[in-house]
């Protein structure tokens, strides 16, 4: 029989790996955004996005940009592909994080 702690540890490991995938995809999106969409890069504070003094309202701007799928009107297929990937990884990571937290209370 598999114990609850083993299941929680495996779920936590998968969640951490997917969070790392999401953050690296987000970093590469911001790097691509510098050339593909300079105005959005300035709006989301691309240079200071991952710093400790990053502006939270500007980071939420990127979240709403990806949530409403405004990138579908962009001409660069690499940029739109990266936006799709970041959006999907965000949804996956948020779901895994919520399931992991829920399981932590039950185990």
What are the salient characteristics of this protein?
single chain, 107 residues, mainly alpha, 4 helices, elongated, cell membrane, transmembrane helix, transmembrane, membrane, cell inner membrane
Task: Report on this structure.
Its main location: membrane. Belongs to the universal stress protein B family. InterPro entries: Universal_stress_protein_B (IPR019598). It comes from Vibrio amylolyticus. By secondary structure, the protein is an all-alpha fold. Helix content is about 75%, strand content about 0%. It is built from four helices and no strands. It has helices at about 5-35, 40-45, 55-65, 75-105. It is elongated, with a radius of gyration of 16 Å. The model has no long low-confidence stretch (mean pLDDT about 90).
How are the elements arranged and paired?
Elements: H1 4-36, H2 38-43, H3 56-67, H4 77-106
Helix pairs in contact: 1-4
Pfam family, one: UspB
Family: Belongs to the universal stress protein B family.
Main location: membrane
Short description:
InterPro entries: Universal_stress_protein_B. This protein has 107 residues and is mainly α.
């Amino acid at each position: 029989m598999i114990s609850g702690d083993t299941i929680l540890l495996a779920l936590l490991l998968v969640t951490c790996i997917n969070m790392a995938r999401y953050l690296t995809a987000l970093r590469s999106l911001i790097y691509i955004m510098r050339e593909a969409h300079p105005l959005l890069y300035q709006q989301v504070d691309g240079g200071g996005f991952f710093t400790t003094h990053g502006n939270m309202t500007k980071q939420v701007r990127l979240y709403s940009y990806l949530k409403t799928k405004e990138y579908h009107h962009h001409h660069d297929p690499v940029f739109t592909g990266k936006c799709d990937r970041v959006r999907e990884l965000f949804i996956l990571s948020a779901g895994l994080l919520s399931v992991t937290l829920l399981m932590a209370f039950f185990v």
